[in-house]
Amino acid sequence: MDCCKMSHKLPHHVSIHGGLYPSRVITVSGIVLKNAQRFYINLCTDSDIAFHFNPRFDENTVVRNTEIQGLWGTEERSLPFNMPFRQGYSFTVMITCQAECYSVSMDGKHLLDYAHRLKDLQSIVHLEVDGDLELNSVIV
């Protein structure tokens, strides 16, 4: 487990040693900038983005997607509630890898599930975080 507690320079890259597997949890904590437009958390292989988690304040939604061999899939944008992130406020996102999906929670409340489109979980060995936030903590 890699744990870093401090403000990080962006973009921030972390290796996920051993790749993902069911029950593995990744936690990202930070503060959304007051004038934020967007930020993202990506779970990546050496060449693809397995899970793109992208809160967009300019569109008032959280976009989820996968990019394989340079091609983006169909975006998932629907949420059963209002935009959970707030400009100027802190957050803790937990992404739990499950057998069929990523289960995402924020501040202890379940947000959404995202079905695996890239099935080779062990090949997902990188975490990227960037955008309009102050990144405080990454636990892999």
TrEMBL record:
Annotated GO CC locations: cytosol; nucleus
Family matches, as CDD domains: GLECT
Keyword Lipid biosynthesis: no
UniProt-listed InterPro entries: ConA-like_dom_sf (IPR013320), Galectin-like (IPR044156), Galectin_CRD (IPR001079)
Keywords: Lectin
One Pfam short name: Gal-bind_lectin
Domain called Galectin: residue spans: 12-140
MF-aspect GO terms: carbohydrate binding; galactoside binding
Any one biological process term the GO annotation gives: negative regulation of type II interferon production
SUPFAM superfamilies, alphabetized: Concanavalin A-like lectins/glucanases (SSF49899)
UniProt keyword Metal-binding, yes or no: no
This protein's name: Galectin
Organism: Octodon degus (Degu)
Gene of this entry: LOC111812005
